[in-house]
Amino acid sequence: MTSSELWTRATADRYDAEEAENSSAAVLGPALAFLAELAGDGRALEFAIGTGRVGIPLRELGVPVAGIELSEPMAAVLRRKADEDTLPVTIGDMATTVVPGGFTLVYLVYNTISNLLTQDEQVDCFRNAARHLEPGGRFVIELLVPPLRFLPPGRTAVPFDVSERHLGFDTVDLVEQMLVSHHFTLDGDDGRYRRANSRHRYAWPAELDLMARITGLELERRVADWDGAPFTQDSAKHISVWRKPA
Known about the structure:
The chain is an alpha/beta fold. The chain has helices spanning about 10-20, 25-40, 55-60, 70-80, 120-130, 205-215; strands spanning about 45, 65-70, 90, 105-110, 135-145, 155-160, 165-175, 180-185, 195-200, 220-225, 235-245. The protein is built from six helices and eleven strands. It has a seven-stranded mixed beta sheet with strand order 3-2-1-4-5-11-10. The protein has a four-stranded antiparallel beta sheet with strand order 6-7-8-9, with no helix packed on it. α1 packs across α4 and α5 packs across α6 (about 205-215). The relative contact order is 0.14.
């Protein structure tokens, strides 16, 4: 078991509703096209597949997809949408769990590598991706750039969402590279807010590149979004692609 915090049944049951906007065709379309092109005629493996927000529509595009998921409640929600023959899912952690066969694509989206709370486990995640990839295959990560530019001296918190139904801010431990996301979500129509938080270990792009080199992968490209915009010093996130040498 890794240090990833286990998502509960209550969280799993409301996940799809809370992520409805990020599951729309407008948002998912570029990501699916990006991943499908890299998968080519091969198989794709999604680390932390969750409820299938990405894996199921990618499978519907004709890419054979398998998944690894730590949370049984999250996998149970996926299973209501796709059976095991359509999309096989193995319960386990993304840093060490091994599934049969080789893959042309392994991918890990939506900041999920940060759920691994130690550097060693994040390196193990890269190692596990390399283990599953066929020669020439790619490992793709979607990850936010740490929001440290928004922290004035002496401050440890930065807001990331202030909307009608949700207030979100991150608190940062600069020494340990730990970030805690705090969420206050309007729950129902009685004005009450539900509070939740999650811990993450942030990593810089250069640190991820070193993890890749340690595990035998080579950086192929880095862009700012799924549409392929150039990655710059002002980019809020990155999509990085590492290749296993043929």
